[in-house]
Amino acid sequence: MGKSLQLRQYITLILAVIVSGVSQGLLMSLLSIILEKEGISSSLNSINALALYIGMLVITPLLEAPVRRFGYKPVILTGIVMVTIGTILFPFWQSFIFWMFLRFIVGVGDSFLHFATQTWIVSTAAEHERGRKITFYGFSYGIGFGIGPLGINLLEIHPWAPFLALFIFYIIVLLFAIRLTNDFPVKAESAAEKGSFSRYKQVIRLAWFTLLPSFLFSYLEASLNNNFPVYALKEGMSQQWISFLLPSFVIGGLLMQIPLGILSDRIGRKRILIAVLTMGGLLLAFVPAFIHAEPVLLILFILSGGLVGSLFSLGLAYMADLLPPALVATGNVLASTVFSIGSLVGVYLNGLLIQLIGGNFIFYILSGCYIFAAVSGFLFKGYQKEESVHLLSEQSG
């Protein structure tokens, strides 16, 4: 199929991303709430959630090789099967250790799925439409992620109901994904692009700023879906309000994903990234002040979500703008690894903050990190793709 990603293929990838979003949005908050009700401490609850991100972190650096050797489709199918099996096993045995193991498996499967789909989309999109296509990818994930927490209410029907719903969704996606036509990443040409360590070094040199949005997006996502429910319950918020607030953040992101992507195609992704980092960071600082005013908090979540909900996809698009085609897969490996690190740091650090100091500091630290990243953007000199190719060819020569 070469460089063109056909519409039918693209729709299948988007469907897979939507269901993955539903899965992550539901499992993160659902499992945290169940463990909290069982009397598990905030720090242990966070440690249990860490297994998902450890799975992502362990497998992500290893994914580039199988994608280059076998192509995108086998990696996507492997990820779907792993997540499907892991998800349906949760209600069989409510054990702290067993759930950690299953979260690890789901994390590995999610990494297979997301790395292959986002690399496929970013690598095949033309530069003038890359922002639109990758933010629609993020938009689709956000739809699923926003719907996911609403599945908490299925617990009232039966303890198995949320997990069974996810299982059915993944089976449907698997049936569509089996019909995909396989494709492969662009092969490396220059010497500087061929060695693994050399490729990582070149990506960091040419596009280090584009990795910060991945870290900050995952840090925030993990904070909201794993730690915020615990923090909110301790502050006396009802389970119903939590299930509405979490999707509201995603709804804000959905409203702005595609407009921001189109705007970044027109005026530049670096400018958009700096703007959303700054304004989003300022809004997050106000969350603790309104933790007992749920309607105000709802508005705040929608506004901040609208600003920062596109960070990951915009970061990937900007990275693809800067890197030679053969380094895009490597860049996605680094972005996914940084994403996993951000999730790990967020879940563990926030669990300690809730237990030792208080949940308010979750958002103060987040705000500071976002402002710091915005300042870093002004210091970043992004090479155009032609300049990057020239630099690499000079090193090879």
What does this structure look like?
With 397 residues, this protein is an all-alpha fold. It is 79% helix and 0% strand. It has 17 helices and no strands. It has a single domain (9-181, 206-396), classed as Growth Hormone, Chain: A, CATH 1.20.1250.
Helix content: over 70%
Number of helices: 17
Q: Spell out the CATH superfamily.
A: MFS general substrate transporter like domains
Mean pLDDT: 83
**Total domains:** 1
| Total E-strand runs | 0
What is the class in the CATH system?
Mainly Alpha
Record the SSE blueprint.
Elements: H1 7-37, H2 42-59, H3 64-70, H4 72-89, H5 96-124, H6 127-147, H7 161-177, H8 191-194, H9 196-207, H10 212-234, H11 239-267, H12 269-284, H13 294-308, H14 311-322, H15 328-356, H16 360-379, H17 385-396
Helix pairs in contact: 1-2, 1-5, 1-6, 1-7, 1-10, 2-5, 2-15, 3-4, 4-5, 4-7, 5-15, 6-11, 6-14, 10-14, 10-15, 10-16, 11-12, 11-13, 12-13, 12-14, 12-16
Task: Give structural attributes.
globular, mainly alpha, 0% strand
Kindly summarize this structure in a few lines.
The chain is 79% helix and 0% strand. With 397 residues, it is mainly α.
